[in-house]
Amino acid sequence: MDTNRLSKTLAKALNDQMTNEAHNAQIYLAYASWANEKGYDGISNFLFRHSNEERNHMMKILEYILKRGGKVVVTAIPGPGADPVSVNDCFEKIFKSEVENTTSIYEIVNMSMAEKDWATWNFMQWFVKEQTEEETLAMDLLSKIKVAGGEKAGHDALYTLDRDLAITPDDAVLAQDVTVEKP
Ligand code: FEO
User: Fold this and answer.
1) pLDDT single digits (tens) 122-139
2) Segments forming the whole domain that contains residue 97
3) Does the residue 179 lie in any domain?
4) What is the DSSP code string of 103-124?
């Protein structure tokens, strides 16, 4: 008896998304190593932690495919691309890749809605919220760098930013989670 509960199309999209998350993990890993080489230990630590988060996202999708009786296809992971040329460039690239990731997640939400696969639709809502957090976090970091001078940020400003990032929480606070007591 066939117990597979995922359509071919959605299984393919989820497998592709698994690779996207693994690709993001590689990007964070490469940028973390770059930051470490440049002496930005706080930024590097933050990015290493985030790489692990991306791998967890990959695993979350992998487990979902298995639980729905689908076939997991593990493929090669595309490389992270060139190193950033500056801290500003690093976070601009990260923001761009998070926005691209959001687009592919929204596409899976669309597909699951079209197929009336409400289990997958429901599963993907976690990722929709997670992407809002990731984009907010990247936007907050870009704002900090902008205040520090963007591409022209001086050593002092980058030193402070690096020190702050070592203790920056991994998750951003979302508008929908804000309360009057805890703005
Ligand atoms: Fe798993 Fe940053 O997206």
Assistant:
1) 999 999 999 999 999 999
2) 8-174
3) no
4) HHHHHHHHHHHHTT-HHHHHHH
What is the residue whose two structure tokens read 């998304």?
17
The model's pTM: 0.91
Any atom of ligand 1 within 6 Å of the Cβ of 54: yes
Cβ(162) – ligand 1 distance below 6 Å: no
Asked whether residue 2 is assigned to any structural domain, the reply reads no
pLDDT digits (tens, 9 = 90+) for 72-92: 999 999 999 999 999 999 999
Domain count within the chain: 1
The C-alpha atoms of residue 183 and residue 178 are separated, in whole angstroms, by 5
Please work out whether the CB of residue 21 comes within 6 Å of at least one atom of ligand 1: yes
Residue 3 lies in a domain: no
CATH of the domain at 144: 1.20.1260.10
Q: Which atom of ligand 1 is nearest to the CA of 57?
A: 1
Residue 173 has pLDDT above 70, yes or no: no
